[in-house]
Amino acid sequence: MAISIDKNLCVGCGACLKVCPYDAIDLIDRKAILNDSCVHCGACVDSCKFKAILSQAGEGPRKDLSEYAGVAVFAETRGQGLAKVATELLGCGRALADTRKVGLTAFLLGHRIQGLAKDLIAHGADRVVVVDDPRLAPFRTAPFARALTSVIQQQKPEIVLIGASGIGRDLAPRVANRLKTGLTADCTGLAIEEGSGLLLQTRPAFGGNVMATIVCPHHRPQMSTVRPGVMKPLPRDDHRQGTITEAKVTIKETDLRTVVREVVRLAGKKVDLSEATVIVSGGRGVGGAKGFEGIRDLAEALGGQVGASRAAVESGWIEHDHQVGQTGKSVSPRLYIACGISGAIQHLAGIAGADFVVAVNRDAQAPIMKAADVAIVGDLHQVVPLLAAEIRRARKENAA
Amino acid sequence: MLIIVPIKQVPDTNDVRIDPETGTLIREGVPSIVNPEDRHAVEMALVLKDQAGGGKVVVVSMGPPQAEIALREMLAMGADEAILLSDRAFAGADTLATACALAHAVRQLGQYDLIICGRQAIDGDTAQVGPQLAEFLQIPQATYAQDLRLEGGKIRVERAVEGEVQVLELPLPALVTCLKEANKPRIPTLKGCIGAFREKPFQVWNASRIKVPLEQIGLKGSPTQVRRTFTPPPRGQGIVLTGDPQQAVQTLVQTLREKGIM
Fold first, then answer.
1. A177, A320, A345 member nearest B136 (Cβ)
2. Do B262 and A391 count as a contact with CB atoms less than 8 A apart?
3. Residues A226 and A161 placed together within one structural domain of the fold
4. Given CB 3.0 to 4.6 Å as the disulfide criterion, which of A47, A276, A376, B204 pairs with A305?
5. What are the structural domain ranges in chain B?
6. Tell me, which fold does domain B2-216 have in CATH?
7. B126 and A185: CB-CB below 8 Å?
8. How far is A274 from chain B (nearest CA, A)?
9. Which is it for strands A305-308 and A335-339: parallel, antiparallel or unpaired?
10. What CATH code is carried by the domain that includes residue A71?
11. For B61-67, what is the mean pLDDT?
12. What percent of chain A lies above the pLDDT cut of 90?
């Protein structure tokens, strides 16, 4: 759809200004004029009593795709530092930028965060665009959406990557909508298609039972949220060179309607599987909340963390923070032990980064058994306690 | 108080199997259910309506005619009215085109106070439609809500993400996406089930009813396209240990030691 205003019919009443959700209409010399913020949503069409606003079918003014160049990542911050996913995005973004032979830019938004710009360069960025504003701390959706959209409009990257974290998944859909472009959620694989140069965005779909590769051929930028824990960061290199520039954005009063009353850290209770080196996970075969005691004990013997399949979490046997797989966390431990987990593709996708996989299952045909480095066919209620005991014995032997 | 709850009918993905020969999904015999987190959204809406001392909870779904049953189930739970957006023109929609259709439907409902969605649907797992709907309507949002209360014409939301809880205050109208930790959805009563079929308003709206331009919905209105779907290649088969568990465990520990993992 394309919106246009017939100046001959417009009487300058201003009715359309009030209904425009984007502040995209200005009244100049008693005529309504569309400004650059117009996304051609059509909200104003019915407001005009004089039929001066015309809506034409069609895709509207097609963007000139060639205006867009370069790869950009959203540098999410956590506390005083960078979120781990920010460096992961730089690692992956660097590879994409090199393939496309373009630059890699990081968008750093927040308040008093300029110090982090050099960290972004050390992790692979050629350029850092900083937006520093007191209204950008702590995180709130509306001012961040305004600032990130604005920076993207100014910089025109062809690819924008955002971490699929609690912040990224809140923010990215709003920004993509405001830009009227596509957004692919929770990608686990990104590549450039030969020939077309399009971004191939691969993600688990249909509950993780299949993988889907998504493209965004006619809109820019191509936007993805990327699952934390999947992409590898580059090693820090403080000799890397890059430029740091500040960007100006206009945050509006209406963006500040949401108030953050307080932020409560859940210390002690926090489970961070994405950083664990050993994970022992339980699934449907564990049989109940009580069955997880054995899993916990084995994890403790190994000094690892407890994970769970979606089935176990959905049955209410264990909290959601423990979930590994599509809707949970992707993990990359040195050792992953799956107990009573059949291994839906979503789960296998979640553990693709594990170095060594052990599966314990009664069903030798379960998919997880074919994906495991060592598969033990047997009852986990027998095997898990035996394994915990054997590991403790071996540890003692080592210590002696 | 008018609360709108968009819901989705989804295949129960826990029951999905892959055809080992063709590598495609076996959809036959897979039951359709109301997306689990959407039940929590309806529960949240019903509790809030009571807290507000009255009002209306309207459930809306975009889907094929069969999605009627999902909406009827929500009426049985206690929702007051249901609207099914059904039109071939909606087919093939990505999250943006879906949110666009929902936004036009919401506008047809007049002045509303709150939209509550489930966090995400189990078939797509994108969590994008809620925020994109809020953006179309230009209202504030709070995703990942574990608690929601009315406080003096505003809402107080506890948003649980990454090891912390943000307590937010939002003006109305607003959109909230809720976690399953937020509540325990009620089970429909027999009376509720009867009412869902006999008394409560149920409407089917097509694209022209919600006055949405056809190029903004369905496949045409979707910037993203699926290039291909596939089943991921399995990891190579490793060692399989059967028989005596004690022996198996010893072999495993030995292997872990040899590999330097322990």
1. A177
2. yes
3. yes
4. A276
5. 2-216
6. Rossmann fold (3.40.50)
7. yes
8. 12
9. unpaired
10. 3.40.50.620
11. 94
12. 66
